[in-house]
Specification:
173 residues; alpha+beta; four-stranded antiparallel β-sheet; two-stranded antiparallel ribbon; 6 helices; 53% helix; DUF1451; Zinc ribbon-containing protein
């Protein structure tokens, strides 16, 4: 895994950590025979340790980023299997707006996460998306007013710019 740069913005650092966790887990997944959602989550946990060894984030921040990544993968996998739609539809915007590497990694991870779908879908719906968390690429909709927030790379979820709501759900289609 590559060393993380030392950016001044801690939120940017967490977004970069999200990408590094995803990249490391996918690289490790290519080496194992059992490709499933639970196995990918196990690989994310292993990658989390590598990130911890770099000393760029606190243990709490690494745990948060890991859970955010797992939540996004569960949400994407649930959507893809339930609707039969493609990953690009789950994002809620044109795929060309995110980097090729991130698109490829997230697509691969979402494909592997489709196993045990019903349970994972329920967890994603219960968890939701909240201000202060990190999310992967896609569109979130404010549960209070319906305002859309577009994320072209992993990033911090701010309060709704329209109503200051703090709870969101992923836009689908």
């Amino acid at each position: 895994m590559k060393d993380l740069p030392n950016p001044k913005d801690p939120v940017e650092l967490m977004g970069q950590a999200y990408e590094r966790l995803l990249e490391s887990a996918i690289e490790d997944a290519k080496k194992v025979e059992k490709k499933s959602g639970p196995e990918l989550h196990h690989l994310i946990d292993k990658a989390r340790q590598k990130l911890s060894d770099l000393g760029e984030l606190t243990a709490e921040e690494i745990d948060q980023v890991s859970e955010y990544l797992k939540r996004d993968l569960r949400d994407a996998a649930s959507y893809i299997v339930e609707t039969g739609e493609e990953f690009k539809t789950w994002l809620g915007f044109d795929l060309s707006l995110i980097g090729d590497r991130m698109r490829e990694l997230f697509s691969q991870a979402a494909d592997q996460t489709t196993i045990e779908l019903k349970q994972l879908q329920e967890q994603a719906q219960l968890a939701g998306y909240h201000t202060g968390e990190i999310t992967g690429p896609g569109t979130l909709v404010c549960d209070k007013c319906g305002e859309e927030l577009h994320f072209y790379k992993p990033g911090h979820i701010p309060p709704c710019p329209k109503c200051h709501g703090t709870v969101f759900h992923r836009k689908t289609a």
